[in-house]
Specification:
CATH topology of the largest domain: Spore Coat Polysaccharide Biosynthesis Protein SpsA, Chain A
Number of strands: 7
Shape: globular
Strand order of the largest sheet: 3-2-1-4-6-5-7
Structural class: alpha/beta
Largest sheet: 7 strands, mixed
Distance between the termini: 46 Å
CATH architecture of the largest domain: Alpha-Beta Complex
Number of helices: 17
Length: 496
């Protein structure tokens, strides 16, 4: 029984941690709904008055973005703002032929009177954080807007964001991400679903109550003084944006999140690109938990509730470890349940933890309704979207668990950029993209074996015990089979 009790203990602890995370999400939902009734009375610059128009620097950190550079620069050149108060820095760490074509396009834009500079470094020290830090040395702007290569801000983006800096305590204004290829494939729909939850429920839920949020690495604007006061960009984690965000808020800078200002961007269309992005985000979250935990706990400038939300925020990615453990141990638990009758009460109590899934279902419905609208038809569509998202998210749990564990133990790895494709519809092809990783990793094979493992879990439902089977975990194992099977199949065949 020793092994059985170890399995039961790990399984139970993981379920409790998932429930705690679900309850935190529920609290964010209450905050989100409460915020909908609040009036925005923030002081704002009047940009119609020349004396109130601050100097802005736009930074575009890029690395080997051959397919999207022309689109990016053409779009940025259209942003409305007084030319004598705007400069653009193309922070180009590229090592391929895009350097030449980017340089030529920048020369053409310079001829139009645009203050745009092509800034190159001899090496990629610090990766994106290093590039931003280098550009900051010569940036003329009092405020610094940052866009990744796949983002396409609207012409009035600065007019909607800059005014909020009239409040001298505001260090960052962050906007919500949009998705220009949301409906391209199942993969992009799932990514959009997850990101929409973050940019509505989580960002608003935290920001509206004064809890810590994060600059999302792009589609936001910093007060330069805030960057320097917080210690400048650092490249010792894979999520330099989260790192600097927490250091700034610990210094009592305020962040302003604008849910209604949407900045369109392109979602990764193949699973290898999504995997590299997920790995970086999840490992970076764990790295920042290790880096920031003591600072948050010992801070005397933030409330206890903000500390709890901050810790749970930094542990977001670590929930994948709990999900993976619950998934893998659920099959042994099925056999233990039907083998040891004296544990019946324990398993009755354990059924309570299905409430975690119910909480997520409710929370994400409000997010979905915000994007697509309510009504019976949309609710039915939501049910399908939720279970598709849940299944595929669990299918990524091995991949993300490895990322999280590497982050917690301090294993360093290179900043791997997410390949961009310049794709909006199925008519656009990605197959000749030179940046695609061609060979799947060993982890993909394990994901395939896990799909078979959960198929065995479904089979087990029919044969365990002496009462004609036990189907309580069958839906869970079915979703895991679908999730790991999807991730395995798409990773092998590189399909969108």
């Amino acid at each position: 029984m020793v092994l059985e009790y170890i399995i039961i203990t790990v399984y139970t602890v993981s379920l409790v941690l998932i429930l705690m995370y679900a309850l935190a999400q529920l609290n964010l939902l209450f905050n989100y709904l409460k915020s909908r009734k609040q009036q925005d009375n923030c002081a704002k610059f009047d940009l119609s008055k020349p004396e109130e128009v601050p100097f802005i620097t736009i930074q575009l950190p890029v690395f080997n973005e051959l397919y999207v550079m022309e689109r990016l620069l053409n779009n940025i050149a259209k942003i409305r703002y007084p030319k004598d108060k705007l400069e653009i820095q193309v922070l180009d760490d590229s090592t391929d032929e895009s350097v030449v074509s980017t340089g030529k396009q920048i020369e053409q834009l310079q001829k139009t009177g645009l203050d745009i500079q092509h800034i190159r470094r001899e090496n990629r020290v610090g990766f994106k954080a290093g590039a931003l830090k280098e550009g900051l040395k010569t940036a003329k702007g009092e405020f610094v807007a940052i866009f990744d290569a796949d983002f396409l801000p609207e012409e009035d983006w600065l007019e909607k964001t800059v005014p909020y800096f009239k409040n001298e305590e505001v260090g960052v204004v962050q906007t919500r991400w949009g998705h220009i290829n949301r409906n391209y494939s199942t993969l992009t729909k799932i990514q959009a679903f997850a990101l929409d939850a973050h940019f509505t429920l989580e960002q608003v839920g935290r920001n509206s109550q004064g809890h810590f949020i994060n600059f999302n690495g792009t589609a936001g604007i910093w007060r330069k003084e805030c960057i320097y006061d917080a210690g400048n960009w650092e490249g010792d984690t894979l999520t330099e944006d989260l790192d600097l965000s927490y250091r700034a808020q610990l210094k009592k800078w305020k962040f302003k999140y604008l849910e209604n200002v949407v900045t369109p961007a392109e979602l990764p269309v193949i699973i290898s690109a999504a995997r590299s992005q997920q790995f970086r985000w999840n490992k970076g979250g764990a790295e920042n938990f290790q880096k920031m935990l003591k600072k948050i706990i010992t801070s005397n400038t933030i409330s206890f509730k903000t500390k709890i939300h901050g810790i749970l925020h930094l542990l977001n990615s670590s929930m994948f470890t709990c999900i993976f453990l619950v998934a893998v141990l659920s099959i042994p638990m099925l056999y233990i349940k039907n083998e040891y009758a004296h544990l019946k009460v324990y398993f009755i109590v354990m059924s309570f933890f299905v409430i975690s899934t119910l909480i997520f279902f409710i929370c994400y419905w409000f997010m979905y309704k915000r994007t697509y609208g309510g009504g019976f038809v949309n609710f039915i569509k939501y049910i399908g979207a939720f279970f598709s998202f849940f299944s595929i998210a669990m299918g990524f749990s091995l991949h993300n668990t490895i990322a999280v564990l590497e982050g917690h133990i301090g294993k360093k790895s290179e900043f791997v950029r997410t390949p961009k494709f310049n794709i909006k519809s199925l008519a656009d092809s990605w197959k000749n993209n030179k940046y695609i990783k061609k060979r799947p990793s060993l982890n993909v094979v394990i994901e395939g074996l896990l799909a078979l493992y959960f198929a065995f879990g479904m089979y087990s439902a029919f044969v365990v015990g002496d009462q004609g089977g036990d189907f309580g975990l069958f839906p869970f194992h079915f979703m895991l089979f679908i999730g790991f099977g999807y991730v395995f199949y798409k990773s092998i065949f590189s399909k969108a």
